[in-house]
Amino acid sequence: MSQGMLTLSKWGNSLSVRLPQKLLNQFGLSQDDKFEFSATDEEIILKPVKKQTAIQKLFEGYDSSQPYPYEIVDKGGAIGEELY
User: Fold this and answer.
1) Residue ranges per domain, the chain?
2) Which of 56, 53, 1, 57 is nearest to 27 (CA)?
3) Which CATH number is associated with domain 8-58?
4) Three-class secondary structure of residue 16 per DSSP
5) What is the spatial distance between Cα 31 and Cα 47, in angstroms, rounded to a whole number?
6) What pLDDT is recorded for position 73?
7) Contact 56/45 with Cβ under 8 angstroms?
8) Sign of torsion, CA 23 28 34 40?
9) φ/ψ (deg, to 5) at 52
10) What is the pTM of this model?
11) Mean pLDDT for all residues in the chain
C-alpha cells in the first residue's frame, strides 16, 4: 500500500490534488484518465476507471447466457485443405 501526503492546490476557481509520478506508474495512469469517487464522513476514495480494450468494447452488452441466435449448419467436413 502506498502512503504519503498530498496537498490541495489552486487550479482556476477550483482546488486540485497532484498525484506523484510513482503512483501514476504503479497504476498505469496518464493524463485525462477517469476516476470514480465515493465519500464518507471521514474518507474520500478514488478508483481509476479501467480502460476498455477493443474486444471488450466489441462485446459490450453481449449476454453469453442467451442461446446463439443463428442456426449452426454442418457443411459435411473439409472441402479443401481446411484444418479442423
Assistant:
1) 8-58
2) 1
3) 2.10.260.10
4) strand
5) 15
6) 75
7) no
8) negative
9) -85, 140
10) 0.53
11) 86
